From TrEMBL:
GO terms for biological process: amino acid metabolic process; carboxylic acid metabolic process. SUPFAM superfamilies: PLP-dependent transferases. The lineage of its organism: Bacteria, Pseudomonadati, Acidobacteriota, Terriglobia, Bryobacterales. The modification N6-(pyridoxal phosphate)lysine is found at K313. Its cofactor is pyridoxal 5'-phosphate. Gene3D superfamilies: Aspartate Aminotransferase, domain 1 (3.90.1150.10), dopa decarboxylase, N-terminal domain (1.20.1340.10), Type I PLP-dependent aspartate aminotransferase-like (Major domain) (3.40.640.10). Belongs to the group II decarboxylase family. The keyword Transferase applies. One of its GO terms (molecular function) is carboxy-lyase activity. This is Aspartate aminotransferase family protein.
Amino acid sequence: MTSKRIDQLRGRSAPLEMTEDEFRSLGHDLVDRIAGFLGSVRERAVTPAEAPDAVRAALGAAKALPEHGAPAGELLENAAELLFDHSLLNGHPRFYGYITSSCAPIGILAELLAAAVNANAGAWKLSPMATEIEAQTIRWLAQFIGYPADCGGLLVSGGNMANLTCFLAARAAKTDWDVRTKGVAGGPPLLVYASRETHTWLQKAVDITGLGTDAIRWIDADRQQRMDLAALELQYTQDVAAGARPFLVVGSAGTVSTGAVDPLPALAAFCRERQLWFHVDGAYGAFAAGTPDAPPELAGLVLADSVAVDPHKWLYAPLEAGCALVRHPAALSDAFSYHPSYYSFGGEATNYFDIGPQNSRGFRALKVWLALQQAGAAQYREMIGDDIALARRLFELANEHPELEALSHNLSITTLRYVPRELRESTGSEPTEVELNRLNQELLARIESSGYAFCSNAVVDGRYALRFCIVNFRTATEDIEALPQWIADLGRQTQGEK
Ligand SMILES: *Cc1c(COP(=O)(O)O)cnc(C)c1O
């Protein structure tokens, strides 16, 4: 029996294999479909806004695992239709939700190419060119934001993982006991300082690494949502007096909610004096550092011990691509390597499994590397600057509109709310604020289900706001100019039907 099977495997042809011609023909067909999809994105609804049941019905979610195979062409055609017709299109020019960008078409092709070679970028030997391309990409990303190009770094899945990677580097560097062997129980309680506007990656990081969320000292933000330095100093002084071990301050280079930039140069000085690790979460805003209109404080990220950036946000890379940058490359191997530092895989080769949490790794760098070259740094800065300019324009237009109230504008995030004319005079009073919060919450639901545009929400100074974030090279002036009146009209309808 076994030997018969072995005989049949001469000139093996497995069910998953494709001939060169089959692959070419299916590939051309799929690329044609994708081109049509990209070409029609502006005419499509931003989201079909279907209920989960409808999506499951379209999929045939109850279908059991097929025991027998099916033709690849039909499967690909069906998958493309399902996805094109039942997805939220973050590549739509009027998608302004969260911080999710339109992806560069060259990134789509890069993903195909990366999968074709299927390099395992965990070890140099398994991925010689992919590893070198990643190393070059890291240098270019550092250069783009003004960070020292001889820093250490690696690509990870996104901002959360980039921040966590830097967090672990900080933890290993700033404990005077062997925290990797003894754990956090081996020394005094470790403390981290961050503003209340910091992204939830920080809770996950202290949880995963055993510090626990009580290790976070939440520092109040000022009215512009930036960390309050005086509050930081006060808290720090109390903690040191109580015998705790502060080791890390996190500054945000663009908060996730309103895009506020913490006073990074002052935070850097604070950390330098006290020998604390200074980490900057630049997942959203770091790439704006080189643009002429960026807030000057953003330049302070060059002083950080580590920076998390997110190419799948403002570099318009398709998901997933985050990146951890660490000033001293050894801080990464000190945090992750299980080889003594004198042990090296053949001299100069980088083995990414040794400086980060992953073992086998995909080739995330290719899409970033290609897009950086396609546009070039100068035009990248221009695209980012254009997103900022459009967000500012939206703020101005909302400010001039009799039924809208512009609440904040930082980087490419503008927040605003609908205020009916009759409530205009009484804003700030409690009943009116409660009423406005509820009205704008309902308005957001209507915007989402409209299919015309998509935004998310923020709470600005206690007020429920509609939040528009432009990390979208497809958004044009006319898209932004049409928004205020459209929002006001929808606001009036929402109010009328209550
Ligand atoms: C988006 C974001 C994150 C998380 O990044 P992911 O890529 O979603 O994991 C962290 N911090 C900030 C400031 C962000 O904007």
